[in-house]
């Protein structure tokens, strides 16, 4: 049988070549200068623009981009098409496309005052293109918040231990922020003390698990869980589809995200992401080391080989029980964040660009951070290979327990009991998700600030209403405290509708399409910067992603939804409504992408036809 270590080695080889070779070329190509003033210094305000130490910012960036998708996607794709196609897309696509996407998005934002990709493309193709992209990004953010809050609720229901552990590390993060930024405590001793506290929180969580209502996961049946409210929670909105405990956690998570997104970054975002990064590094790095040790020493509780239920290649149409999906283009949409993700461009050109201390830090944080997410995706694929999956169409309900359960098996190679390792890996997943969720809400506010209009370095509370309906709506939409509420309300409505299939499909399509548009923004920026700049590094991945996304969304809209669900399946009622909405949104996304690509192509052609005299300096307003 095939050993799981080959999955790890393949990724480590291609990622090492990418970082040591390709990223170094890109850094020279982008002319990063350690002495140039970054937006974090130029607009430093103690709120959003805050120069950060490289390890602290790497922790924030990595934690923010690595949500649940790089775990769910590879596991789902591995089950449907086999582990080999999934591995190849991660190992090859990440260093050539995803890491380039993140690196260029961050670098371009640095040269445009820390503004978003929407602002950047608007500088060159016009205000209409800017607003189209910003609105698209804002709607994508709401989908991200909805999906991630739902996944956290599912994990909290399956692993009540993680609830307590999460509360401990959030409290420690608040204390660490005060220690670091208000008391000016020494960095390294503080890191040791507070990181130790975070890991101790895992033990506290195992001893004192918490739930809002009676958890429904089978593994909690004999567990001494402290139930805060009691009963089944059947009256909670969404309980019929999700279960009372899961449904009840979702608004709590969204409330946390709204509050956290409104706080200054030094209060919670920076210290929490830095501390949680050690959990993430331990989870991803520990699993990689455990796979190597378990293979070489045979120290795992069971052989680290690919389970017989997981095929190497299940054919172009995938596993029959999954519904027969074509490998091209759906594999490349199913595995999004482990290879390339549009959400990362919002993080790179949102919170990260506003905190970068030196331009040269962008190579490690942008390119290297995305490679880290690829390692997470490979670990997720390895946990699937070890644990196996009896149901080919288990979806998210099967993917999440597989990651924690398989991770627990892998960590036994290091002498860690599976009873501790599985909850720890579940906490690793939640750490990714919580940081991504409130960062997404903060980014959504940034998007709206640019749509409505707010100078760089300025914020507004959202309560200064008056001056007419348009002025009031603008103030509410861009407000530090009001905008997060608006986002979370719409996200919550989508979650409690119970239409998970629609929600996940929209998220996947919107996310990958946003990646194509971010690469378009980078290509347009480079074309306008200098006539000598080659456009292949961003232009080729952009063309690939536009093709994949358009074909994938067309397949979902016309074949899977209209033909299979409506014509053949005879959908009616709520299912019919959801299917029609999904199809219409897919077609709107396709039209939006093609329109923006046309605008970008026309701009590039105009600039290059003018020759060197037509080029502008990067960030020239």
From TrEMBL:
This protein's GO CC annotations: plasma membrane
Cellular localisation: Cell membrane
Organism (species): Haloarcula vallismortis ATCC 29715
GO terms classed as biological process: cellular response to starvation
Name the UniProt record assigns to this protein: Carbon starvation protein CstA
Membrane topology of the entry: Multi-pass membrane protein
Superkingdom to which the source organism belongs: Archaea
Transmembrane segments: 6-22, 71-92, 133-155, 162-181, 187-211, 223-242, 248-269, 278-301, 321-343, 364-389, 409-435, 485-507, 513-530, 542-563, 575-597
Keyword list, A-Z: Cell membrane, Membrane, Transmembrane, Transmembrane helix
Domain CstA N-terminal: start-end pairs: 4-385, 399-550
Family annotation (InterPro entries): CstA, CstA_N
